[in-house]
Amino acid sequence: MSTEEMNSQTFPTWTFDKACPSMEWTPLSAVSVTLTANVTADQLSSTDLVILPVESSPSGSEDKEPSSALELKTLATQMDSAVTAGALSEVLQEHAKALAKRGGTSPAVRVIVGGGKTQKYMLLAVGSADDDLKGAGWALGKAIAASCIAEKKLGTVTVVLPETYATHETVMTDVVTAVYQSLYADNRFRSKKKPVAEDLTAITFASEGSICDASVVVETGKMLAQGVIMAKDIINAPHNVLNSESLAETAKRIAAESKDGTMTCTILDKTECEKRGMGAYLGVARGSETEPQFIHMTYKPVDGNVRRKVALVGKGLLFDTGGYNIKTQMMELMKFDCGGSAAVLGAARSISQLCPAGVEVHFIVAACENMINDKAYVPSDILTASNGLTIEVMNTDAEGRLTLADALVYADKEVQAEKIVEFSTLTGACMISLGKQIAGVWTDSDDLAAELDAASKATGDKTWRMPMAHEYAEQLESPFADLKNLGTRFGGSITAALFLTNFVEKGKPFGHVDCAGPIWEDGKGATGWGSKLIVEWVKQQGQA
Fold this sequence. Notes:
The protein is an alpha/beta fold.
C-alpha cells in the first residue's frame, strides 16, 4: 500500500514538524426518530422490537411484593394475550425486581409472526404516573438505547409510553436526547469501525392517546445530543490530534455553523494575550507544543433582546504532564484535563442551534498544554496575572488554576459579564470527596448555587454544593508574592476554589465547578457531563 493510500485511510494527525490542525467530529446517529399518537395493536405488527411500558403502583405501595406493585397497561395486556401467549406476564413476574425501578428492562420475548419473521417484545419500567417526572426522560432514553444496542440486527423499534409521559414535552425531549447521545460510538481512530446498533434505522415513540409536538421534541433532542457528543469527542481525542490549535479550529467551526449567525468566535494569539498581561496563562503555555490559543465565543439572540450577560469559562489543558512536577501515575488519562472546556464548547454547539432568548453568552477557554521543554515554567517562578496579582508557583502540576486566573479576569473585566461560572477538572481532592459521578460546586452566592442545583436536577448532570471556607485562604499566602498556587494537601479542592476568587470582582456572582470525577468513565471514556447542565442554566438566565 502506498503512503498516499495509507494517509487516505487514517485520521489526520501531526507530522514531525507540524501539529494536527483540526479534529474530526462524530456525526449524530442517522437513526430516524418519530412520534405517533393513538397507536393500535395492529400498527405494532411490522416493527422488529416492541418495547411496552410497565407502570408501578402509586407511591405508598412499598410494602407490596415487587410483582404485585407492577402492572401491564391496556395495549401491553392486549399484546400479551393476542401475540405472546402470556409470555409477557411471565417475564413480569420473573423480572419484577429489575422492573421495579424506572429504566429497568426485561429480556426480550421472541415471537414468530407472518412469513416466519421473528418479532421481539420487551418490557420497560416507567415508574408511577404519580411520581415526579424530573429526570424520567434520561433514565428511559438510556434504557431504550441500551436495549437497541444489545438486541442485534434490529431495523425498527417502537416504544409505547403512557400518555402522561408522551404529552410531557420536557420528558420526551430528554428521552430523545438520551437515545441519540447513547448511540454515540467514537470510531474516528479505528481502522475497522465498531458501530453500535448498525442495522437500526428508525425508532418510533408511540402513545395510546395524545403525544406532544414531534418537530419540537426531536429537533431539540438532537441539538442537545450534539452538544454532549461534541464534549465526548473533545475529551476522547488523543493529544496528537487535539491541541490548542485544533481546539481553536473546533470553536471557529461551531461559530461558523451557528443558526442565523448568532455566534461569533475570536481567537487571541500569544501577542494579544501578552498585551493584556496574561502572565499566569502564558507562564503555563511556555512549555506547550503548540502556540497558546485564547478562545472567546459569543452568542447573542437574533432579536438583540438581552436581559442578562453571562460568561462560561472552561479549563482547556489539552494535555497535562504535570510539568517539572511530573505526574507519576495516570498520565495516560491526562487528555481529559480539557474536560471543562469540553463541557463549555459542547454547550456552545447546542446553544448555537437552540438559540435561547434573552441571554448573551460568552464562552472562554485559555487553551494550552502543560508540558516540559527548555522554556517551561518551574517551581518557585513568580507569575503576574492580568489583574496585577503575583503568584508563586509551588507546584507546576497546579497549572489549571493559573490558566483560569487570566480567563476569569478577561470574563470579569473585558467581557464585563454579570455572572461567571467556570468548569474545570481541577483537583483529585474533589474526586476523593464526591466520587466519580458528582461534580463539586463552590460559590458564595446562594442564588447562583440554587440555579446550578436546579439545572443539575433537570438534566441529570449531578452536582453538590461544597463549602467556601474562607479561613483556609491563609494557606495561599506567600512570603514572596501575593499568592501561592497551592495550599496544603488538606482541603485542596477548597483552596483551589478560594484561589480562583481572587480573579473575579468581589460580590459578583461567581461559581467554580470541579468536574474531575464525572467527565470520565473508566473503560468507556468521556461521558459528556456538563454540556446539558450548562444549556439548562443558560436558558434559565434568559427567562429570569
